[in-house]
Write a structure and sequence with these properties.
The protein is mainly α. It contains five helices and no strands. The chain is rod-shaped, with a radius of gyration of 27 Å.
Length: 182
C-alpha cells in the first residue's frame, strides 16, 4: 500500500471544510475498525466456550475410559490436542491486545510547541485550524493503518483456531479408522 502523504503544499489548495470532512471520515473508519475488533473478540469468547467444552469432554472421556480400545483412546488424544491448539490460538485473540485509541490525549497535541511556532506570526484562525487538522489527519491515517494491521493478525489467529480444531477432528477420525482396520 502506498504511503499516505499530506504536505503543506497540498493543504494550501484544500478548504477547511474539505479537511474537516476527511478528518471526520477518518474517525469513522477508525471507529469501524475498533467495532470489528470488538466483534471478533465477542465471537472469540463464544468459540472459546465451545472449545473448552469439547476439550474437557474429551479429557473426561479419556479419564473414565482409559482402559478401552487403543484406537479410540489414541483418536481422542489427537482430538484433544487439536482442540488444545484451538484454545491457545483463541486465547491469543481475546486476551489483552494492542489497539489504537480514537483521538489523542491533550499532551499529544504539543500545544506549547505549536504556540512557539506561531508566536509573532499573523495567521488567521482558519489557517491555524487547517494546520492542526492536517496533523490530525496524518495521525489518524497512522492509527487506521496500525489498527487494520492488528485486526488482520487477530483474524489470522481466529482462522488458525478453527483450522486446528478441524485438523484435530480429521486426524482423530483418520487414525481411528486406520487403527481399527488393522
Amino acid at each position: 500500500m502506498e504511503e499516505f502523504k499530506l504536505t503543506n503544499q497540498t493543504t494550501k489548495h484544500l478548504s477547511l471544510d474539505i479537511l474537516k470532512q476527511v478528518y471526520n471520515e477518518g474517525k469513522e473508519r477508525l471507529k469501524d475498525l475498533r467495532d470489528q475488533e470488538s466483534a471478533t473478540t465477542g465471537r472469540g469468547y463464544t468459540l472459546l466456550g465451545i472449545y473448552i467444552t469439547l476439550f474437557f469432554a474429551a479429557i473426561g472421556y479419556l479419564y473414565l475410559h482409559w482402559e478401552e480400545e487403543f484406537a479410540f483412546v489414541f483418536s481422542m488424544i489427537l482430538f484433544a490436542i487439536g482442540v488444545g491448539f484451538s484454545i491457545t490460538f483463541m486465547l491469543m485473540v481475546i486476551l489483552p491486545r494492542d489497539h489504537m485509541p480514537i483521538g489523542r490525549t491533550p499532551s499529544e497535541y504539543h500545544l506549547p510547541q505549536w504556540a512557539a511556532t506561531l508566536e509573532g506570526k499573523d495567521y488567521e484562525d482558519d489557517a491555524k485550524l487547517m494546520a492542526l487538522l492536517t496533523e490530525e489527519i496524518k495521525q489518524l491515517e497512522r492509527s487506521i493503518q496500525e489498527q487494520a494491521g492488528y485486526n488482520r493478525v487477530r483474524t489470522e489467529k481466529f482462522k488458525y483456531s478453527i483450522i486446528s480444531c478441524i485438523i484435530g477432528m480429521i486426524a482423530s477420525i483418520f487414525f481411528f479408522i486406520c487403527l481399527t482396520a488393522l
